[in-house]
Amino acid sequence: MDKLKINGGMPLEGEITISGAKNAALPILCAGLLTSDTLRLTNVPQLKDVLTTQKLLQGMGVRVMTDNVHEFEITANQVERLIAPYDLVKTMRASILVLGPMLARFGEAAVSLPGGCAIGARPVDQHIKGLEAMGAEVRIENGYIKASARRLKGARIVTDMVTVTGTENLMMAATLADGITTIENAAREPEVVDLAECLIRMGAKIRGHGSDSIVIEGVERLHGAEHTVLPDRIETGTFLCAAAAARGKVLLRQTRAGLLDAVLDKLREAGAHLEAGDDWILLEMRERPRAVNVRTLPYPAFPTDMQAQFMALNAIAAGTGIMSETIFENRFMHAPELARMGARIAVDGHTAVVTGVEKLSGATVMATDLRASASLVIAGLAAEGETVVDRIYHLDRGYEHIETKLGRVGARIERIA
Ligand SMILES: CC(=O)N[C@H]1[C@@H](OP(=O)(O)OP(=O)(O)OC[C@H]2O[C@@H](n3ccc(=O)[nH]c3=O)[C@H](O)[C@@H]2O)O[C@H](CO)[C@@H](O)[C@@H]1O
Ligand SMILES: C=C(OP(=O)(O)O)C(=O)O
């Protein structure tokens, strides 16, 4: 099993190019199921989760062509098996995103029910509630969500909480429904907006995306289109945190500052100097960071997917940072691993109190989930001595060549078996 070996203490200097967003690419690849024409995508990140989605679609009979690793052509003109099997869903929860498109276009779907994962129980009851409101019959049988509907009907859906993939699944389903669907309490995340823009290029009638009320007027059919996946704001934020923790000056290219205002505000509060243009962000960190308080909430507030990386930053900051996780019930698994490197973190339910120490010391630590892994890499870059991060298959789900990108800005980091 691969590990990352990091020799910390080197400031980071140079440029990193940001990849396309995992959380936009995955739903957009699944949107290819909504038409028999070809959907052409560029800026698709080269990630394990993208590969899993490719396998999932190919298993159904969808033709997925990738001449260049970042360009995909998806043609769903011969879909034979309307099923997302357990062995793929268990490795990637986002597989649930085939449910809405399959049901809308083919009238039936069987998707293995995703179980809980390292960060929480993560039920999909809101996806099901929304599809039922649109007239689908849904039952849970043998570990699968089995859904059928002759043709989905437009409905007004109010989700109990803001759910990103829930909004995406229902928005995709509604594009081919009969009549108008309104999703209230919709997620406003940039990845939802990117998906909506791709669907509009495919002929969908959607308005309100980016607000908490999305209105979709169903059409008879969607057609082929071309779309470029937006930059990954979480990868961007992760490298900014790495540069803030290890200190130095790093320029991120092919990204957009407007996607991560809340994160940039916290980095400024921590003492980082930031400049940004249309498609770049420059961060310089000249001194020890100051601890910041963080409360995770749906977009546009501070993202839960950046909480672990800020915990690593707070771990070496001056002062005490209070971190509240309000989205997932078990997203502090990195805290005990950071403590093995000398961090002082007290976790009480949804709150972690992080008292910064002058220096962390390298240790062997274990990654428990995707962003927890990223926080251990950041801690390793800032720590004295050698850190080995075990179980980095989590990282490979969501970061494209992280060791190569960090190596280019001077990090001493290598992948070892
Ligand atoms: C592939 C993808 O885009 N993943 C992102 C997506 O996950 P994902 O879409 O799975 O997360 P949700 O936004 O759905 O979850 C938000 C909260 O709602 C709860 N919930 C959600 C749906 C539901 O039917 N019932 C329910 O109770 C969840 O358990 C969680 O507590 O948004 C999360 C929150 O920004 C991010 O951390 C993930 O990176
Ligand atoms: C939690 C995440 O992803 P997923 O929803 O795919 O588990 C993430 O990207 O941080």
Task: Describe the protein in words.
It is a single chain. With 417 residues, this protein is of the alpha/beta class. It has 2 domains: 3-18 and 231-416, UDP-n-acetylglucosamine1-carboxyvinyl-transferase, Chain, CATH 3.65.10; 22-228, Enolpyruvate transferase domain (UDP-n-acetylglucosamine1-carboxyvinyl-transferase, Chain, Alpha-beta prism), CATH 3.65.10. The chain has 14 helices and 24 strands. The strands form 6 sheets. It has a 4-stranded mixed sheet. Strands 2-15-17-16 form a 4-stranded mixed sheet. The chain is elongated, with a radius of gyration of 21 Å. The structure holds uridine-diphosphate-N-acetylglucosamine (UD1) and phosphoenolpyruvate. Uridine-diphosphate-N-acetylglucosamine is lined by residues 23, 26, 94, 120-127, 161, 163-166, 304-305, 327-328.
